[in-house]
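Cont'd.
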Amino acid sequence: MSVIIDGNKIAQDIRRSVREETLVFKEKTGIVPGLAVVLVGEDPASQVYVGRKAKACAEVGFLSREYKLPADTSEEELLRLINDLNHDQFIHGILVQLPLPRQIATDKIIAAIDPHKDVDGFNPYNVGGLVTGSPLFVPCTPRGIMELIARTGITLSGKDAVVVGRSNIVGKPIALLLLAQNATVTICHSKTKDLPAVTSRADVLIAAVGKARMITADMVKEGAVVIDVGVNRLDNGKLAGDVAFDEVAAKAGYITPVPGGVGPMTIAMLMKNTLDAAKMTR
Ligand code: NDP
């Protein structure tokens, strides 16, 4: 039976340490880290995420500002707001909640965020930095995953790591981070031939697909570290990851549950990135 990696507890530890560090930083510099969250439209899931981010900011002692814009906001209006926030001395991190409505080109908006305030790490400057090994910010979910792996105590150097999924927000950045730690990395996607043959070689297996329970025990190496990024809503309303938890937990060395694994780490890392952004202004 594997060790269950408790993302809730680890995320709580990180938020506590960010709160403590923020106190010291404020006392030393008089600067209060500030995060601006921009939401365009009324997507219910996005509203929930934005609310959670504001709550986390309050808990760690940050200034948080929410900008809730109507669904018919134009690209120009949003670009103007980003430009204002880029020059706002009280705001150190800018996060634009995705997805954006169709009339707005997401790439253009992300590229407009000052890389020094790009706490989501999606700006091309930071994406390039991730490739060359020196980003200002690492995207929150991949940064959280690396922290979860670090807490197992395993060394990544020389290990076979397999990432299933190649999105810009999870698959590709996590693959680059694993590579930076000297893992031998394979990235799989929907065109990969014989997925089980590849995944069952993995010492570290990251599932970031968005298909409930698609990673079954026969696809996992005995003793592997299995990180489940997927969040899938089942017909009965419950959440499930991309990994068939019970059967894989019986075979893996370490495994993250859903919920309570990767999910809570994302906001904890957003807090860490925002504090880092405030420190960069010094
Ligand atoms: P995307 O839909 O952008 O990417 C999914 C990836 O999975 C694609 O690269 C796709 O391949 C690949 N894929 C699809 N089907 C298969 C298959 N049968 N075999 C192998 N690969 C396949 O998803 P995201 O990366 O944005 O998110 C992945 C999951 O993680 C989702 O469930 C999402 O909700 C969750 N998530 C959770 C977060 C958290 O904080 N816990 C944060 C972000 C995401 P191809 O490129 O060929 O189409």
